[in-house]
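Sharing a chain and its predicted structure for anyone who wants a worked example. Both blocks are below, sequence first, tokens second.
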Amino acid sequence: MQPESSLERRRATAAALAAWSCLLLLDAFPDRSAAAHHSATAPAGPKTTTSPGGPVNTSAEDLAALRALNKRFIHNFVTNDVASHDAILHPQFRSITPQGAHVDRVAYLKYWASGFNASVITDWDMRDERITLIADIALVSATNKWTKVTPEGAKTGMTCYTDTYVRHDGRWLCVLAHLTTVSPEHYPPDSSIVVRYVNGQLQPQT
């Protein structure tokens, strides 16, 4: 017979997966319930939410750790820090590009070594951060606004990402990074900026 703590852990994980599936369905079919969709995508805060399995753990400590990891994720990219990034990726990590390509962990880290060039990407920020925490699973979403130098001149756009984290041996590790191109009508405002880099340099927070 399994210890009570093990059974509780399995029940919490099962409930988390069920709730996670509901969130994904809401994203896929937003018109089914506008109120439910708003609840699933509202900006994160230090509060308790609920899932089909009961109260969800949204401890301030976990939320602070995930916000710090999100900032570290961005900083790792801007500084091409492969070692630091490797340390926060799950062994089974993969990425999905805006074009739908699936990239494995090895190829992803190889790209990471030279993915950011400050002379090409002159302005880069992370904004509209949203965190959904369900037991040992966390969805960390935000949007990057970028300005790139091209032969035709400066080009600006936004890309939304959702990073899925799992608690692994007591640590939060990213197991999936999914990128989506943002249409101009859905651009988050400048007031939601969390961090910004100009010419590769982190800017003071205002």
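Comments welcome. Helices lie at 4-28, 34-41, 60-78, 82-86, 105-112.
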